[in-house]
Amino acid sequence: MESTIKFSDPSAIKEELIKKYPPKVAKKRSKAIVLNDPETVPEVQANVRTVPGIITQRSCSYAGCKGVVLGPTRDIVNITHGPIGCSFYSWLTRRNQTKPESAEHENYMPYCFST
Question: GO molecular function terms here (predicted)?
Answer without folding.
Answer: ATP binding; iron-sulfur cluster binding; metal ion binding; nitrogenase activity
